[in-house]
Specification:
It is built from eleven helices and eleven strands. The protein has helices at about 15-35, 40-45, 70-95, 115-130, 135-140, 175, 185-195, 220-225, 240-255, 265-275, 295-300; strands at about 50-55, 55-60, 100-110, 140-155, 160-170, 205-210, 210, 215, 260-265, 300-310, 315.
Length: about 325
Amino acid sequence: MSEIFEDKTENGKVRPWRERKIENVRYAEYLAILEFKRAHDVRGCGEVLRFRKIGEHLKLYQTWFCHKRLCPLCNWRKSMKNSSQLKQIIAEAVAREPKGRFLFLTLTVKNAHSAEELKVSLRALTKAFNKLTRYKKVTKNLLGYLRSTEITVNEQDGSYNQHLHVLVFVKSSYFKNSNNYLAQAEWAKLWQRALKVDYEPVVHVQAVKANKRKGTDSLQASAEETAKYEVKSADYMTADDERNLVVIKNLEYALAGTRQISYGGLLKQIKQDLKLEDVENGDLVHVGDEDYTKEQMEAMEEVVAKWDFSKQNYFIW
């Protein structure tokens, strides 16, 4: 009997390779039913994992990822890489603008009820956000931002809720001058104007900061919220296969050609200065904090794990 593979973090938590791969295989099966040609590629995603053993821990060294938009395995790795990049960018932003402050902004729009409506709405969201960042009341305080899109599926009517999570970096004068400060109601009015809608959209804004002395770090929590999955697999991996097929087909259509994450202003400049690659099409093997050279990694002991489709687990090979 082969040994079951486990990859643990430094604090002993088991990384969810098995859970994400089970979801990946199921996603591939849905794509095959929908007659998407990429189904075969998705099924082969992360089938063989090659690690290097560093002390008691493993470092992923080589595998093949499919990079498909809804692949649970790839999205997990993308989220890790986005989070790692954002930590570096925030640290550099604070070093360059130590008096700058962060806001966490959530911008919503009415739910979409079809694939076509969702596709149009997502593009309208991006266009409206770009317009929002150019309004005088916003630009005079804005240093930079990170914008990410999240889509959830309403359990009652199957509609699609789209909203933007935005980590906004502003000048310290934003809080010191009443002419600069924007209350939540003002953000809502500006967002409504940018969207060109006849209803007042729900907007939430809060100041965030690092506060490690009290055991909490709202800046880090906001960063992780911004860097997380665009669509959680729980929304298209329910017990209802028929519903899941409809959701996946609609999302595949609506998300084609869109971007989940976008940087602007100083944060975009820092990302370029640090030479951080585009996560959407980048390397998902190395997701951050790489302390070893290729030569050092190759000299370490190799551990190979292979997915067994019948037993639904990774085994040491």
